[in-house]
Amino acid sequence: MNLEDIKKICIVGAGTMGHQISLAVALAGFKVTCTDISQEMLNKAQNFARTYLAERVAKEKLSQEQADRALASLSFTESLEEAAGDADFVIEAAVEKLDVKRKLFAELDSITPSHAILATNSSFIVSSEVAYATKKPDKVCNMHFFYPALVMKLVEVVQGSHTSQETAQVTMDLCTKMGKTGVLLKKEIYGFLVNRIVSAINNEALFLADIGIASPEEIDTAVVSGLGHPMGPFRLMDLLGIDLYYDITMERYRMTQDPREKPSPMVVEKVAKKEWGRKTKKGFYKYD
Ligand SMILES: NC(=O)c1ccc[n+]([C@@H]2O[C@H](COP(=O)([O-])OP(=O)(O)OC[C@H]3O[C@@H](n4cnc5c(N)ncnc54)[C@H](O)[C@@H]3O)[C@@H](O)[C@H]2O)c1
Questions:
Q1: Closest Cα partner for 156 from 202, 201, 200, 195?
Q2: What is the CA(121)–ligand 1 centre distance, in A?
Q3: Contact 72, 65 (CB under 8 A)
Q4: For 20-57, what is each residue's pLDDT tens digit?
Q5: Which of 6-15, 83-92, 197-206 has the lowest mean pLDDT?
Q6: Which atom of ligand 1 is nearest the CA belonging to 240?
Q7: What is the average per-residue pLDDT within 178-205?
Q8: What is the largest CA-CA distance in the chain?
């Protein structure tokens, strides 16, 4: 299969990542169907697409024709069968839970045409964890976008030992077609490149705050002013979701059983209080 054979792309999950990936794919000229188990999330994604495209036209970043074309090529449905049944490429962006992803990949395997590539946008889980839920592991890989997906250029494509050269190449070509910068990892490693580096920083920041060396605000100031990062680790966790950070850490702990990998007490407390960051208006910081 070549990039030219891809006409229709299915995005599974309309959350923080899925709604923007859907729009980015539509803007690259593909027919897109976004599916989610929540009609509310689908409605939000659809409203976002309309508002975003109108704003881009108003700012003269897009022509009215480009916006109309993107909107017309984008559809939303609760039915996985309808979304994936005729898809040539699937990007799974559902919750970061291995059991959910495995079940989805097994379903996608039976629904999609045999040539379809199945990619996961997981932040940490390598695709071999889901590939064997299908009968075509050679067509499974990681395609990891960054938040916000409409803005961030980087996409990590991971070619596991089960992933064919063709699958990796078509996925890299899709990144280029979308105006993204793809980096190809030739071996699987949990967390890929960027999140491994970010995790090392986050874990140290949480450790320093947990043992009372400095407050989250002071640590963020140190990282921004001392390292030149655009945002400190606590503000970044608020932005991406402390609940997601907890799920990721728990998944890692389940895999390694290393007590040092357990979520920090501060993260456990925030999750229990439903202070998940920007999305709940409170995390390490408060938001209006
Ligand atoms: N948030 C980030 O910054 C970020 C960045 C890169 C990658 N990711 C990865 O992207 C994926 C999604 O993360 P998110 O932050 O968008 O999560 P989210 O919680 O915002 O959205 C997940 C969506 O998946 C839906 N969902 C759950 N089960 C489903 C199913 N069986 N079928 C269809 N939809 C289902 C939920 O209803 C929800 O709308 C995760 O694997 C995450 O690791 C997240």
A1: 195
A2: 9
A3: no
A4: 999 999 999 999 999 999 999 999 999 999 999 999 99
A5: 197-206
A6: 3
A7: 94
A8: 56
Here the contacts of 58-67 (C-beta below 8 Å, separation 24 or greater) are 66/27
DSSP tag of 241: -
Amino acid (1-letter code) at residue 137: P
- Just list the catalytic residues: 123, 144, 156, 195
Domains and CATH numbers, the chain: 3-185 (3.40.50.720), 194-280 (1.10.1040.50)
Find tokens 């067509």 and name the residue: 139
- d(CA 270, CA 281) in angstroms, rounded, equals 12
pLDDT of residue 129: 96
Query: In angstroms, what is the span from residue 103 Cα to ligand 1's centroid?
Result: 14
Residue 14 Cβ contacting ligand 1 at under 6 Å: yes
**Residue 65 confidence (pLDDT) above 90:** yes
- Specify the ligand 1 atom closest to the Cα of 104: 31
pLDDT by residue (tens digit) across 246-278?
Answer: 988 898 888 888 888 899 999 999 999 999 999
Please tell me the pTM assigned to this model.
0.87
User: To 10 degrees, what angle do helices 39-58 and 18-27 make?
Assistant: 50
Sign of CA dihedral 64, 65, 70, 71: positive
| Range with lowest mean pLDDT among 126-130, 168-172, 249-253 | 249-253
State the Cα–Cα distance between residues 168 and 142, nearest whole angstrom.
Answer: 9
**What residues contact residue 180 under an 8 Å CB cut-off, 6+ apart?**
24, 145, 153, 154, 155
Structure tokens that stand for 154 in this block? 């980087």
